């Protein structure tokens, strides 16, 4: 049976581009989201998130009547679940964060009443191992009149698979089409039907495995990057202690044909790399020692940067004995969680800037070319030129393209990205 109507549950950074992509291939798409504002915005042909080229896709899809957004699920031939999977706040300091599957549970219970024999349900959200089986269980509990792959395998009424999203924010529209896709069906038929669905727009290879391996593959990709960034961040602190330029060191080491060290920074931000490794650690805490340690190294890096700013401030005051801390202006360059985007969520740069504004008695400036305002009274958003004329201590936190052209002769510089050497 082919897929005429496709429902995407969760219209965020992954769900909305995916919905728009199916619509661009002339499929009828029903997007579901609990956020009324998102639903209204999409139905006007506009978008509520920032992602290059997505506005054109959504506008065309809505105008052609191929994409509509609703708050309650309607019948469809395939359901893709792309809801957040955050972790639960730790009760005690040092506890391993546990995944929070409440959004997947809510989405499963919401679509269950409209499921019909022959439907395909795909979990796209990054999930701990076992989440797809758990989702199938929630669906089966809600619909005892239908059969599911955990009990009926190839002959189940409903097919279920995990096909993790792997696109890079800022490049979602291209990567959705071009990246290879890992397809983890709960049975062979579940996988084959998922491949058929994704081939509507995916030009990359759709590689079949089982649901648990697909879940672990996604977690492994992001944990691998986290461990590699932790290595670079640890090197940056060791080199600082030993008076070695870490950027030069890494570029020298990377000349070895089998070495490719990533870049240090102020810490790891975003909603994926700083979260997903915990899904492995919480399942196998005794075994995932390296992954846990890497998380610790990356999470501590912002504190190290804040200490560097405190040391620079003390040195500045010692060199300028007529001044007090109130007379000193500190500028933080970049607030986003990575270069050339406007996304401030889970951003170490923003956390560091706020922490500096909280301890420092003088002026704190922020330069973030990708936003128009900041809702903090003790942080003043300024342009690069304004900052250059007023600042005593410069703190580079994000390597936005605009900052690479800045030439500083000042003495007090903390450059966490190595672009002002
Ligand atoms: N970062 C460094 N040094 C580096 C590279 C990155 O400090 O050398 C920092 C960035 O500044 C940022 C954080 O790491 O704070 C994460 O940025 P990122 O560009 O590595 O990744 P994300 O979070 O934007 O997207 C990742 C991608 N995963 C991988 O590259 C393995 C993407 O493909 C996933 O789809 C996405 O997570 C996701 O949704 O899981």
TrEMBL record:
It is an enzyme of class 1 (oxidoreductase). Pfam families: UDPG_MGDP_dh (PF00984), UDPG_MGDP_dh_C (PF03720), UDPG_MGDP_dh_N (PF03721). Signal peptide: none annotated. GO terms for molecular function: NAD binding; oxidoreductase activity, acting on the CH-CH group of donors, NAD or NADP as acceptor; oxidoreductase activity, acting on the CH-OH group of donors, NAD or NADP as acceptor. InterPro entries: 6-PGluconate_DH-like_C_sf, NAD(P)-bd_dom_sf, UDP-Glc/GDP-Man, UDP-Glc/GDP-Man_DH_C, UDP-Glc/GDP-Man_DH_C_sf, UDP-Glc/GDP-Man_DH_dimer, UDP-Glc/GDP-Man_DH_N, UDP_ManNAc/GlcNAc_DH. Keywords: NAD, Oxidoreductase. GO terms for biological process: polysaccharide biosynthetic process. Belongs to the UDP-glucose/GDP-mannose dehydrogenase family. PANTHER family: UDP-N-ACETYL-D-MANNOSAMINE DEHYDROGENASE. This is UDP-N-acetyl-D-mannosaminuronic acid dehydrogenase. It comes from Vibrio coralliirubri.
